[in-house]
Amino acid sequence: MNLANFSVNRPVTIFMMMIALVIIGSIAAPLLPVDLYPNMEIPTANVSVNWPGASPGQVESQVTKRIEASMATIANVQSVSSTSRTGSSNVTVQFNFGTDISEATLTMRDRLDRVKRQLPTDADAPVVSRADPNSQPILNLALYSNSVDLITLRDLADNVVSPAVQRADGVASVGVTGGRVRQIQLLIDQNKLNQYGLTFNQVTSALSNDNQSTDAGLVYKGDQLVPLTIKGEFKSTAEIEKVRVSLSRGQSIPIGELGQVIDTYQEITFESRRNGEKSVGISVLKQSDGNTVSVADNIRKAMADIEKNLPEGVKLGVLNDSSKFIKSSINTVVEHTLLGGVFSVIILMLFLNSIRATLIIGVVIPISVISAFSMMYFSGQTINTITLGGLALGLGSLVDFAVVVLESIFRKREEGLTPVEAAKQGTAEVGTAVLASALAQIAVFAPTLFINGLVKNFFVPMALTVSFSHIAALFAAITLVPMLAAKLLKKHSHDETLPEGRSYNPAVWFGRGMNRLTRGYSGLLKWSLGHRAIIVLVTVGMLGGSVFLARFVGTEITPKTDEGQLFVNISLAQGTKFEITNALATKVEDLIKNIPDIESIFTTVGGGGGGAFQSASTNSANIQVTLKPLAERKQKTEQIVEQIRNLTSGNPGAQISVNARSSIRLPGLGGGGGADIQVNLNGPDMAVLSKLGDMVAEELRAIPTLRNVQNTLDRNIPEFDMTIDREAASYYGISVREVMTSIRTAYQGSVATNFKTGDSQISVLVKYPSEFTNNLENLNQVVLTTASGAQIPLNAIAKVEPGSGPAQIRHINQQRLATIQGAVFNAPIGDVSKEVQARLDTIQPPDGYTISLGSQADSNNAFKSLYMMLGLSIVLVYMVMASQFESLYGPFIIMFSLPPTFIGAILGLYLTHRTINMNSVMGMIMLVGIVVNNAIVLVDYTNQLRKRGMTLYDALLEAGRIRLRPILMTTATTVLAMLPLVIGFGEGAEAQASMATVVAFGLTLSTMITLLLVPVVYTLMDGLKDRLQRYWKKQSPPALPADH
């Protein structure tokens, strides 16, 4: 069935079909989830084990190594990394992309069940968790004030703000950090404990057992069964003091006799403030299927109601809203798309000089985009910067099909045919070429089906979105365009020719210019066909020049984005007191607060914060700096980062790093810990690794574009080592675990139970007074109970000596790891990586030690996948065209339009100072499908003219003259549609700028060269074909005479 004839003959049917597509797409579009990037399942899982009181060395040898060994043998494991800290082990298992992470975690749990018996008996059970992007807060809030204390702020956060935010649609959980948290403390007198022969465990057990409520079953009340509840929970601190602890011989004493019960607050080891005002942090996580933008909007609505109920002087502010950058980025793409669409319509108006014809083309764009939304919905895609960027980049291509069809209809109309016949014949004439062009543009994305890794997760959604829109545009071009042309276009009149004399109509000026351009092109084409060697040599020379120029184009995995946020991380020597760290953080705040482009500063100091605000320990602090919107500030984020680096450089003894936030940095394809550059050192001995790390750090500091170069290997810190005499412990019937538990409880305290008041749970902590725990000499006074019930001092079975050890021990693939990190300033990361690698090659590590550039293998694999996609796309485009034209010869000629494409792409990146990255290579892949359109139109029409009896020379000249206008129209609409993206203004524009630059410059230069090169190559190939045919004819044996 001829779709063009059907659409012209059945206009109502076609109109109803288009209306149906618009209705379905309009319903689907609002239902599509909105996010910054496509949904990506990161095949990573963690195993965490808590072993309170154990040193990093003990955790490493008795927990981490055993878990690592069991994980390393699981199928499809790419790497196993770990961190052993005081009291905890964390092992991260990264699987190959494509691994079923659900099945993998089941296997991990099975392996852990086997290794549990080898772990220390007093260590907690291993916990397996999957890496979940939704585990990051979508919104961080701060409740701050200088007029109320931290106790009140915490109470407001817990009982007013948190419940109200939790009720907002789409919120999964709310975490509150900071402030002062109420706590009931029982301060035990060691002498009283020894006097009565009691242990810590006996005290905590008495408290726990006496604070119980439970259901006792059902009892009859008359003829009715009613529940019986035993309520034995504490109602006041006085009741806690009266709890009795059993002694020997059936006696007991009240807990109040053993120490003092006080209603107080937890020790301050964490503090936060916003712009210098005391604050409490609130982090919000969305539900796994929640829409980031809509959930954030719901929270902001809830905040408006919350603020009405806050006391005077207390404010609730937003620290970080991930939906803000998402909305800004998407709005930027939408604005650029609309602006590009306007440019395309203007160009069409100038070329066609017809409002009706322009409207016919213009209606294809919204129908294609809306239809794409419906297909995105049914295929489970989301609206994000990648899918919308694909639509924006493909916007010009969407009208290409319609332009070629309408231009052909216009020409038939000018030949005197009626609008109906012109619509049918014009569409039929270019139908094959349009179909081939569409299939070529879709085929370039087929290789995404054959690659794995993050590149596939990142670009398959864009490939699907662009393919969906192209399918819709193709359908509209061969059905809607001929139908509307037959109805709206009038029969050609001689009055439509360009008027003579002066005219103020821009379309007239443009038309006259096109006539002169066409005559000039015809003359240049004649010259080119007479000087074919020059055209070929110039093209080859330009291609060689682009290869040379590529050396001066930077490389990086992903382009950096200006998100208006940066982080200042402060780290002092392990064990530094909270007060000292807090003082330095305050000093840094004072240094940077007067920078004009800063909007807010949020500082967290110390450990125990938890959630999104947690700092590592009392020796660290983090300052989150939010800048004014891009349009309101004079400096870019990277410039402000460098300014803060200079301001904070004079602080000896402290490591201060400043880094800009970048959401586009992909897991596995960037430096660890947010660093741009990371060098990994592996080997068995920590001391050797430390020296080797210092050598590497010194080399990296000599690179002028590297900042914040730090050796992250923690130096040994002072500690006290306790050695237990196992024979003596065995003699007294005391296990090592009992010793560890007694010491841990004595110095850290033990939460015995919780005291309920209203909806709040207040912990009851049993501990020695700080006067006791602050003096190490008192450690020997800790009393242990033997198996016979007798009491002995700790020094009877253990010896305490000063020592040193690492604060944490890191592994990668079961080897100890040290990392050197640095931030790149004012240079492409790929270029700096090459310089880093060159310097690393000059360092010869000792036997058993290795030096590697972190994530370099991942980066290489990503680019390898993209270049494989590029090669496969070229092959597939040729195969599609060969199948469509049923010829190997014509498509081979068309493929010569590709080399000029790469010349333009490299030239564009060089002139705009952009880099070769994943996005720009993806632009090259898209170009493979786009640039062949012009050659297809030219070669296809040349073949038609030759079939009508024209010589090759005349056919090429005529095809060039006739097809120049549609070629220039499609090129101009595509390039101008991308112009706003090439300029790259607005937040988040960097993500699409390099891709758009490649497509715009590549297509422009390719069109200019293709118009001359393809006809020249056609004649050369045709001559070669004739010579080969004559040669084979001579080689063929003469035909045998027929038998009579």
TrEMBL record:
A GO MF label: xenobiotic transmembrane transporter activity
Pfam families per UniProt: ACR_tran
At the top level of its lineage, which domain of life is listed? Answer: Bacteria
Record bears the keyword Cell membrane: no
- The answer to whether keyword Transmembrane helix applies is yes
Membrane-spanning ranges: 12-32, 333-352, 359-380, 386-410, 430-452, 458-481, 533-553, 862-881, 888-911, 923-943, 964-986, 998-1021
Keywords of this protein's UniProt record, alphabetized? Membrane, Transmembrane, Transmembrane helix
Q: Record's Gene Ontology CC terms?
A: plasma membrane
PANTHER family recorded for this chain? PTHR32063, SWARMING MOTILITY PROTEIN SWRC (PTHR32063:SF0)
| Name this protein carries in UniProt | Efflux RND transporter permease subunit
Source species: Paenibacillus piri
* Phylogenetic placement of the source organism: Bacteria, Bacillati, Bacillota, Bacilli, Bacillales
